[in-house]
Amino acid sequence: MKQSSVLVVDDEKEIADFIELYLKNENYQVFKFYNGAGALECVKQEQIDLAILDVMLPDIDGFEILKEIRKDHNFPVIMLTAKTASMDKINGLTLGADDYIEKPFEPLELMARVKAQLRRFIRYNDGSGQNSEDTLEIAGLVLNKNTHQCLYGEEEVTLTPLEFSILWILTKNKGKVISSENLFEQVWKEKYFKNNNNTVMVHIRHLREKLGEVMGHKELIKTVWGVGYKVEE
After folding, report:
1. pLDDT-based confidence at 74, cuts 50/70/90?
2. In 3-state terms, what secondary structure has residue 109?
3. Looking at the predicted structure, is the pLDDT value of residue 104 above 60?
4. How far apart are CA 197 and CA 22, in angstroms?
5. Cβ-contact 9, 62 below 8 angstroms
6. What is the DSSP secondary-structure string of 181-230?
7. What distance in Å separates the CA atoms of residue 47 and residue 143, rounded to the nearest whole number?
8. For the segment 3-38, what is each residue's pLDDT rounded down to a tens digit?
């Protein structure tokens, strides 16, 4: 199996060196930089499988590096920050980060997250996993139709088959409003009657609660009153 390569970018030399040590102990190839410019040049020249980016850098901040990476690459990106503000996490995930970890962190936790992200990335890109029709992504969530898994970063959101089906239909029609009637008939495979609207509402509520536990205050599923429901980035 090919040795996975990891890009590490952190202006705190001790932290970058520490991460490099743990990664090399796990037999990863490491490209380490203390600034953003060198990291971006490396992304252009080398095949990277995962990046660990500090948010605060002396030249280019981690969010700008992330934006540049996402123009041409889909490998996993884990953001590091000393900040505790939830807005940083939201910004990172909105721009395409796959995971987020705050300093100070346990190195074993970081390694576990690296392995989880690489497993997912390799599974989706080595040809033995699902094709694009079997997976959907939105706002950091990844839905796998074959396994009925819903992942947010490395964390799995446990959904019932009905909840998964509702989220799959809404995500597949991202930005479009799906009526309660349409949802019910697609998910339950039965003719819709007015009292079935309560059934849909209850499942939507449970789905929002579960997503809220991992996504914070970001409300993925929006109600369009008198019409139905939709999801947006």
Report:
1. confident
2. helix
3. yes
4. 53
5. yes
6. HHHHHHHT-S---TTHHHHHHHHHHHHHHHHHHHHTT---EEEETTTEEE
7. 26
8. 899 999 999 999 999 999 999 999 999 999 999 999
Provide the 8-state DSSP code for 30: E
Please report which helix (H) or strand (E) contains residue 64, including its range.
helix 62-72
> Please, which residues have CB within 8 angstroms of residue 39's CB and are 6 or more apart in sequence?
7, 9, 31, 33, 51, 53, 65
Strands (E), the chain: 5-9, 29-33, 50-54, 77-81, 99-102, 135-138, 141-144, 149-152, 155-156, 178-179, 221-224, 228-231
Whole-Å CA distances, 129 to 24, 30, 72, 132, 146: 27, 26, 22, 10, 10
Angle, vertex CA 166, rays to CA 99 and CA 142, nearest 5: 20
Length of the chain, in residues? 233
| Of 104, 134, 138, 99, the residue nearest 115 (C-alpha) | 99
Q: Nearest-CA neighbor of 54 among 27, 4, 18, 28?
A: 18
Residue 88's pLDDT is what?
A: 64
Q: How far is CA 114 from CA 33, 99, 143, in A?
A: 18, 9, 20
Q: Are 204 and 164 in contact (CB under 8 A)?
A: no
Q: What is the pTM of this model?
A: 0.56
Q: What one-character DSSP code corresponds to residue 157?
A: P
